[in-house]
Amino acid sequence: MLKSISLQNFRSYEKSEFSFDNITLIVGPNTTGKTNLIESIFLLSTGKSFRTDKDVQMLKFTKELARVKGKADDEELEVLITNGQVNGKSQYKKFLVNGVAKRRVDFAGHLLTVLFSPQDLDIIIDSPGLRRNFLDEVLEQVDRDYRIASISYSKALRQRNALLEQTQETGARNEKQFEYWDNLIIENGQTITAKRQEFIDFANSQEKDMFDFVLTYDKSVISKERLLQYAEAELASGVTLVGPHRDDFIVLMSKDSKSLHDVKFFGSRGQQRLAILQLKILELLFVEKVLGKRPVLILDDIFSELDEGHINLIFNEIGKQQTIISTTHKEFIPKKMLKSMKIISFIK
Fold this sequence. Notes:
Number of strands: 14
Structural class: alpha/beta
Number of domains: 2
CATH topology of the largest domain: Glutathione S-transferase Yfyf (Class Pi), Chain A, domain 2
CATH class of the largest domain: Mainly Alpha
CATH superfamily of the largest domain: RecF/RecN/SMC, N-terminal domain
Largest sheet: 6 strands, antiparallel
Number of helices: 11
Distance between the termini: 29 Å
Strand content: 15-25%
Strand order of the largest sheet: 2-1-4-5-6-7
CATH architecture of the largest domain: Up-down Bundle
Order of helices and strands: EEEHEEEEHEHHHEHHEEHHEHEHE
């Protein structure tokens, strides 16, 4: 449970503190800082933003250092971000748990969260990258080995792609260098694939009250044989063509008793949104299954994107764990429920 958070020079906040209850409502017009506050909670949970890959963008304009500090159960979590030159790096991020410095791989997972934001509504209909990000979001919180494999894989992939570009330019292939990075992406890629498969299998084994579907894991298997098979094509393109960075999954629904159809192409907009809601509930259940505790549910300004029926389905989940909700209007929340909520108001 997240008890409190303090922000210094983070996004639009110069210096602010907030406390949270079992159910907390953050209410106010757009551009007043609601999503910035949600982002800070996600940062404490995962060690990264869900809005940008560039840490410096989380700094308040003209400031050199930002600090996000939170109290979760009996632990103090802190993230420092600076755009100054520290240890030779132009962008620097530091993680602390109870004042002790940690790597991100050991920082993530102390505050468990499941975030549902408007951009999640496009997971099914948009690019495979969004679906891979969803898998990463689920697995990085609950599995340290997955976090390590993901970081190592990304680094090895960048180096291998640089080697492919170099080979394109020079016409000379250094087999010893390729062998080193090949081994790294194979070892870590196979770990990522296996753990993604575990989540897919879990999702398919669960009863689905909101929307029934089957997930098909469209995995890009990585092995020495596959890299050899695509060697010429990779040299022509200058990038690695196989591995979990090319994974995808397909959401299949039954339109009749005999056949399954891709929700992306055959589902209505309402069915696609129900599928996303169901995926998020499965994420909650998976975290609880693996770690034995329910994560904080964060709902970031999604009510304006959903119809009344979908909103009511979400309300059924609110009392099962600590929930933090942001919205532009209190009217989206039933009056009976408002009475039991702590309210953080950005309305002037």
